[in-house]
Design brief:
The protein has 464 residues and is an alpha+beta fold. 49% of the residues lie in helices and 10% in strands.
Length: 464
Amino acid sequence: MFLSVFDIFKVGIGPSSSHTMGPMVAAARFLGDLRRGVEKVPGAGALHGLGASLHGSLAFTGKGHATDRAVILGLCGLLPDTLDPDRAEEIEAEVRLTGLVHPEGLPPLHFAPEKDLLFDYGPPLPGHANGLILRAFDAAGRTYYQQTYYSIGGGFVASAEELERSANAQDAPPAAVPYPFARADEMLRMGRASGKTIAQMKRANEEAAHGDGLDARLDRIWQVMDGCIQRGLTQEGILPGGLKVRRRARLIHRQLQAERGRNLNQPHQANDWMSVYAMAVNEENAAGGRVVTSPTNGAAGVVPAVARYYLDHCIGARPDGVRDLLLVASAIGGIIKHNASISGAEVGCQGEVGSASAMAAAGLCAVLGGTNEQVENAAEIALEHHLGMTCDPAAGLVQVPCIERNALGAIKAVSAASLALRGDGAHFMPLDNCIKVMRDTGRDMDLKYKETSQGGIAVNLPEC
């Protein structure tokens, strides 16, 4: 099993990797099929227009997660990693006004979102809670070509056929990398046999898969993460969506800066720094800004906050240490995704912020000198204490409780790393078992607590 660090950490836009980035990627893939000249449905005329339907969680929280905008932008041929977030609203408005999209390499196609983009609030599609069907049709409305996609968390997208193949690929051969660990126990065994750290094994895997230039690409990921923190610390005002949630990161940051050197620092103020870094990222995400999936958008603040905490507050921190932190974090994220899920619509927020906290804890423990066993212990501690966490965003927006939840995820990550470093790596619950518990808990969790905004905080807001 091999998931690259650049699969786990992808540059994109907010507010959601599964509900914004995934549908945009799916729409762009659909256009690619049309450009390649897919075999049209017998009896259909010339290609004339496009349609889409959103199912399951994509329908229930699609409006709050800007899924409709994502599909529109994707059908224009745009992608999350290159789209200018400041132009998204303008492009959407033009499509809604004209009822046309102009994807490169195809003729202008009719697409009027009010009638051609359907939110289906019935049962979800069979493959995953986040399903969408994309359709091309002729001038008479007959289907020209159709494809079903699933947005499976973290910006990952699979067609119905790909999802079925992956479900039947349990006996697939190991990936062609030096250390193809799919589980934490395999990772530890390979580390003991090779004498290498987790960061060294992950680096060897990435270099085998991608060749040279790894450090430059890792630095680019960190630059986007840190740039998101910086922008979030300078912005103020009300976040979009109707809840009237006010940005707080800028004010908190100013307070923390003003208290430096004035003997006003409480011992727990380090938590406030971690919190403000995470909140800055997730306020940017909620506003539709540029973020990095870590491993999802809804949990995008945890890893950057811990990395920034490491650089700004930890004794002996090295700027290039962030590279190892990201490599180790992605190794843990890949194991979790392979054996459970990082999708809030599938397993609740334990799969998003819980996974992010485990990743950040492992990365921090590694760069602070932890052994492989201590790193695995740190990840387990952080994940264990997010088990059962529901995904219940108010009004379908990635704001309440998501922004503060990232702050607490970062704090738990640092605490988990610190606890692990105080031990020798021996512990009662292995990470692999904890991941299985998370997966099983997610399967047993009521659908209303899995990113549908039909339970929990989402239905217990005060009357306005």
